[in-house]
Amino acid sequence: xxxxxxxxxxxxxxxxxxxxxxxxxxxxxxxxxxxxxxxxxxxxxxxxxxxxxxxxxxxxxxxxxxxxxxxxxxxxxxxxxxxxxxxxxxxxxxxxxxxxxxxxxxxxxxxxxxxxxxxxxxxxxxxxxxxxxxxxxxxxxxxxxxxxxxxxxxxxxxxxxxxxxxxxxxxxxxxxxxxxxxxxxxxxxxxxxxxxxxxxxxxxxxxxxxxxxxxxxxxxxxxxxxxxxxxxxxxxxxxxxxxxxxxxxxxxxxxxxxxxxxxxxxxxxxxxxxxxxxxxxxxxxxxxxxxxxxxxxxxxxxxxxxxxxxxxxxxxxxxxxxxxxxxxxxxxxxxx
Length: 336
Description:
Elements: H1 7-26, H2 35-48, H3 51-62, H4 68-91, H5 99-106, H6 115-136, H7 139-160, H8 172-188, H9 192-220, H10 233-247, H11 254-259, H12 263-283, H13 290-331
Helix pairs in contact: 1-2, 1-3, 1-12, 1-13, 2-9, 3-8, 3-10, 4-5, 4-12, 4-13, 6-8, 7-8, 9-10, 12-13
């Protein structure tokens, strides 16, 4: 049974990408001596790093159901921004024409040019098999699976600092974990403790992330954010709790639902935009009004993406839809 997407969840996707952009912009103030901006760095990273996990929790809750049409449409978007960013890099940023650059532009998923999109597309392709896990495992065994994954890939790097995957949570394993958590929540609901104490759990998790990162940075004499990584126990708990709160706040908005359709293009275009704008951010990272540059930069990246993505749809959507129809007629609707 399909679950209708809610505008509250679509707004969460929009908020998540905004926080991710701001977090990346704040990377230009990583070594700032300005205490306002230094504190802002920790605040934004504390909240912003829940974004990726929330994206995949949403995908798990609603389920990914791959079709050839969905696959081709997503790849068309990825290829467009991959090639566009390559040309901008070569002709505007002076990257030069290299074989490696061409390979990454043509094979953005296999080359991990956009790590998030690579992991998402891998998850997308394996989703039909993952979706069967919830029906083939008992609740007891499913819970054991999640606990085992938590111990190996979350608790270990968070508490013991032993990281099996060596990717800071920015890999397929953490996507798989978040997706399975979302699937579990869809069928069995949220843990009772989250339902009863969601505000306390959320504020406590965020406070622990902020305070420990801040104290470690003070002790080491430079910004450190180990608890704000994607495989941090507290980041995942905070993401699940935020997801719970938004899922229970229901409303409908066609504007928000429409804007949420630009999230992936925003993610892919923000990388090249940040390369262009980073000198301006770095040169102003010591100013008290850096937050203005932060908000303005985020808004500019959003506006640029809206314009380019709207133009891309106008120019290429008919062609892509035609290709999808031909592919489905020849190979069928399902991807796997």
